[in-house]
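Progress against Task 2.4 (sequence-to-structure conversion) is shown through the following example record, which the project officer requested during the mid-term review.
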Amino acid sequence: MKIAALQMVSTPDVDRNLAAAQRLIAEAAGGGAALVALPEYFCLMGRRDTDKLAHAETPGDGPIQRFLSEAARTHGLTVIGGTLPMKTADPARARNTCCVYGPDGALLARYDKLHLFRYDNGKERYDEGAVLEAGDLPVAVDLPTAQGPLRTGLSVCYDLRFPELYRAMSFTEGEGPCDLISVPAAFTYPTGQAHWELLLRARAVENQCYVIAAAQGGTHENGRRTWGHSMVVNPWGEVVAVQAEGEGVVMAELDRARMAAVRMQLPALGHRRLG
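Structure tokens generated for the chain above:
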């Protein structure tokens, strides 16, 4: 089956961002994609971190959630909806939420980003936790496909640095390993240049699965530059499709036979002794 990571350079204007996402989803659908993934904050890259609070939605209701549901239904595909701000009990805080919609437009899963990014190099400081509330639990979902259920683990950006999260997705309550891991992101340029591909390939190798990583990629109107390099990585750790910067569709084939062969030839998942 074909899957597509959609790379964006989102702006402070939600309507413009949704229009860009709509173009990319339509392009991917036209190319035969059965599943598309949007980047973190596809709907808004504000001028201030607090801007997202004005656009935070109530679970199950709001223009961004409706857009994702309608896009999935219109094109008859699965949409991993990057992230959007979701309201919490505290009006000064939101959750960074990934919603997944099936081909009929129904909500299949919700994941709230667990690990919140903080950075301080002595000159520049950033703390995502100043506005965001962390999620509670790992989430994996069996997505419907023509080839049968596709067990998909959900994560967001900074989560990528915590391999125990991906183990928890795959082996909670006797569930099998993930076939696909999704990592929507807005990696900073310096950390992306140093670690993005390295970490994505590591997650693919250690979990012997595909990784789809839809990213923000370029210089944004708020002055921030994101690393981009949206990609799909196969279970052997090979990058099978990538786009460095700019808006675009990164399309690849998810080959279940290739994944099964890797797991049979090197049955590392069955050799686990801890966890």
